[in-house]
Amino acid sequence: MSSRSTGSVLLVFLWSLTVVLVQGNWDVTYSTQSICVLKGSTVELSCTYKYPSGHKVTSTFWFTTKYTDGNPVNLSDDPDYRGRVTYRSDEKNRHTLIITDLRESDSAEYKFSFITDQTGGQWIGQPGVTLSVTGLQVEVIGGQKRTLTCRTTCPLTGNPTYIWYKNGESGEENSTPQYYNQIFREYEVSWGYQDSYTCSVKGHEDLHSPTVCVEGQYCSRVTYTQRRICVLKGSSVDITCTYVGGSNVTSPLWFSTKQSGWWRDKLFPEDLTTDPGYAGRVEFPDQESTRYRGPFTLRITDLREEDSDEYRFTYATNLFLRGYGLPGTTLTVT
């Protein structure tokens, strides 16, 4: 090989090595590659990034690959995420995307990008983070004895603990998604046309599955007209629910989860009409005329910001002492 050829090969090799070293100074490292979380919850996606010395970062943002078409759109400018996205960063080049009130339509691959003050100084972290958003559903299988499973469309991240509610009352906790009958020590429930079941995950007790009946469609359960309400301070609000079941309601009562007591993870509701914080501001306008079936309405007047909370309806029937309507209605006063 001639000295000219040898010099050319060496030059190409050194040039290639230089390119690799320069590229190696650009990097985005994500804290996870995939995550599965509950609809209605909040998620944080984090990464760290680096770039060559001599550059200055002028812009950082996250985007989803759903609608980019080669032109990334900052999530904070995306109408689908308006009011639900915030960014957090620190001096160690760590950047976090926070999405609140997650929807199943948010399921996508998310990527981080940063731009520097040098020509061509934009970098996108590949491959990104795959976010899956799922709701909870109770699946009922079997004959006279039935198994109940709290289903999701993807395996929830973080080894969740499942919480089961019978007729709206908090009950068993289990590391597996199957309902466990503590009385009979078995993963089955006996036939009971009045009984309804729902499940949630510990740490997200406000994000329940829809209520299901073990038998038929007329088990005791409560449906709220609205799951979320946002109203102005000083105004009034009506929170309404209806009851479905084989028995008439007795002892109807509205309560707030914040103002009620807890003992051994059991919620003991406090009647809002006896709460000094609501004195003179709470009415049950249709309680007497509709006390057997509903609809049942809670009216709160002269609203205050501290009234922001989840409100639930509880009741008794001739078959059981207390049933709860889950999930309730979340009120935000602003």
Automatic annotation (TrEMBL):
The keyword Transcription does not apply. It comes from the Eukaryota. InterPro entries: Ig-like_dom (IPR007110), Ig-like_dom_sf (IPR036179), Ig-like_fold (IPR013783), Ig_CD22 (IPR056386), Ig_sub (IPR003599). Residues 127-215 form the Ig-like domain. Keywords: Signal. Residues 1-24 form the signal peptide. Transmembrane segments: none annotated. This is Ig-like domain-containing protein.
